[in-house]
Automatic annotation (TrEMBL):
Cellular-component GO terms for this entry: cytoplasm
Name under which the protein is recorded: Threonylcarbamoyl-AMP synthase
Protein species of origin: Pseudovibrio exalbescens
GO molecular function: ATP binding; double-stranded RNA binding; L-threonylcarbamoyladenylate synthase; tRNA binding
Transmembrane segments: none
Subcellular location: Cytoplasm
Key words of the record: ATP-binding, Cytoplasm, Nucleotide-binding, Nucleotidyltransferase, Transferase, tRNA processing
Catalytic reactions on record: L-threonine + hydrogencarbonate + ATP = L-threonylcarbamoyladenylate + diphosphate + H2O
Primary subcellular site in the record, as a coarse category: cytoplasm
Binding-site residues, L-threonine: 38, 70, 125, 145, 185
Gene3D superfamilies linked: DHBP synthase, Threonylcarbamoyl-AMP synthase, C-terminal domain
Domain YrdC-like: 16-203
Task of the protein: Required for the formation of a threonylcarbamoyl group on adenosine at position 37 (t(6)A37) in tRNAs that read codons beginning with adenine.
The protein's Enzyme Commission number: 2.7.7.87
Length: 328
C-alpha cells in the first residue's frame, strides 16, 4: 500500500504523478481508500464486478448489502438513476454533500449488479470531496465506496483508522486528515409513494423535510435484504459492549458524554470522552467514531454513553449508537 498525504485544502493534487497512478489502480480493479466529507471510503470501479467483489471481501461485508456509487456531478448521476422532481429538488439543495438518493436504476447505468445487490434501484451521491470527485471524473467511472472499515465495525474517520483495518487490501490510502462530518451520508429512498429515510446521517431529517415540504417515513432495520447501507440492526460496533442513555456509570467503563452534564458515578470511568463540551451536535457527530474507537481501547468492562438529544444530527448519532449497542 502507498500512503499519499495531502492537505485537505490542496487543489493541485491532479498535477501530481501519483494521481495518474491512483486512476490506473481504479481502472485495474484495485481498491483505494479515499477521504470524503463524511468518512473514509473504500473506493473501487462500480462498473467492475470483480472490483466490487474485492470490496465485499476486504470488508467481510455480506453481498446482499448494496454499495453507494459516488459520481462527480448531478449530470453524471442522471446516467445511473431516474430522477423524479423530488430527487431534482434534493440534489439541487444538498449536492455536493452528505446525501445519498436511492432511485430507480436507469437503463443507461453501467453499475455492476453486484454493487446494487441485484436490486432494481441504485444508491448514488455526489460527495463534497474534491479527491473523490476528481477520481470519478478522471476515470469516467462511478465509484462504489462504502466506509473504509471492517464490516459491522466502527467507521474510519482518519487514515490511521483505515490502515489499521484494511491496509493489506489497499493499493493507495489518500490521507487528508480527519473527515469533517464524521458520520455517513443521510440516505433517502424516492422509490414508491412516499420519501423514506433509510439511514439518518450528515443532513438532518428536518432540512430534507423542509425542501420536500413533506414528512419523511422512517424505514427501520433490515438484516436480510437491506435497501441501502447502514440498515442492519448491528453495525458500527466496537469490540466492547455498549450501554446507552446511562444514568449511572459502572466501575471501569469508558464514558462518552455530551455537554457539561455527567451521569452518577462518572468518577468510576476508566476514561471520559466528551463529544462536544458545548453540546454542539455537529461537532459531536464529527467526533463520534473517534470517541468510540478510543473508548474501546480504554476499557475491558464496556462503554457507557450518556443521553444524546435526538433532534437534528442527534438522530444520526443515536442511530449509530443504537446499532453499536445491538446484540451481535
Amino acid at each position: 500500500m502507498e500512503r499519499w498525504q495531502l492537505a485537505a485544502q490542496d487543489t493541485d493534487f491532479k498535477k501530481d504523478e501519483r494521481f495518474a497512478r491512483v486512476c490506473r489502480a481504479i481502472e485495474a480493479g484495485e481498491l483505494v481508500a479515499v477521504p470524503t466529507e463524511t468518512v473514509y471510503g473504500l473506493a473501487a470501479d462500480a462498473t467492475n464486478g470483480q472490483a466490487c467483489a474485492r470490496i465485499y471481501e476486504a470488508k467481510g461485508r455480506p453481498q446482499f448489502n448494496p454499495l453507494i456509487s459516488h459520481v462527480e456531478s448531478l449530470e453524471a448521476a442522471r446516467r445511473h438513476g431516474i430522477f423524479t422532481a423530488d430527487a431534482e429538488r434534493l440534489a439541487d439543495a444538498f449536492w455536493p454533500g452528505p446525501l445519498t438518493l436511492v432511485l430507480p436504476r436507469a437503463g443507461s447505468s453501467t453499475v455492476s449488479q453486484l454493487a446494487t445487490a441485484g436490486l432494481e434501484t441504485i444508491a448514488i451521491r455526489v460527495p463534497n470531496a474534491p479527491f473523490m470527485q476528481a477520481l470519478a471524473e478522471a476515470t469516467g467511472k462511478p465509484l462504489a465506496a462504502p466506509s473504509a472499515n471492517l464490516s459491522g465495525r466502527i467507521s474510519g474517520t482518519t487514515a490511521d483508522d483505515v490502515a489499521h483495518d484494511l491496509e493489506p487490501h489497499l493499493a493507495f490510502l489518500i490521507d487528508t486528515g480527519p473527515t469533517s462530518v464524521g458520520v455517513e451520508s443521510t440516505i433517502i429512498s424516492l422509490v414508491g409513494d412516499q420519501p423514506t429515510l433509510l439511514r439518518p446521517g450528515g443532513i438532518a431529517r428536518e432540512e430534507i423535510e423542509a425542501v420536500l415540504n413533506t414528512r419523511l417515513v422512517s424505514a427501520g432495520t433490515n438484516d436480510s435484504a437491506p435497501a441501502a447501507p447502514g440498515m442492519m440492526s448491528s453495525h458500527y460496533a466496537p469490540c466492547s459492549s455498549v450501554r446507552l442513555n446511562v444514568t449511572e456509570v459502572h466501575q471501569g467503563e469508558a464514558l462518552i458524554t455530551l455537554g457539561t452534564a455527567l451521569p452518577a458515578g462518572a468518577e468510576k470511568a476508566s476514561q471520559r470522552f466528551n463529544l462536544s463540551a458545548e453540546g454542539n451536535l455537529r461537532e459531536a457527530a464529527s467526533n463520534l467514531f473517534i470517541a468510540l474507537r478510543q473508548a474501546d481501547k480504554a476499557t475491558q468492562v464496556g462503554i457507557a454513553v450518556a443521553p444524546i438529544p435526538a433532534t437534528g444530527l442527534g438522530e444520526a448519532i443515536n442511530d449509530r449508537l443504537l446499532r453499536a449497542a445491538a446484540p451481535r
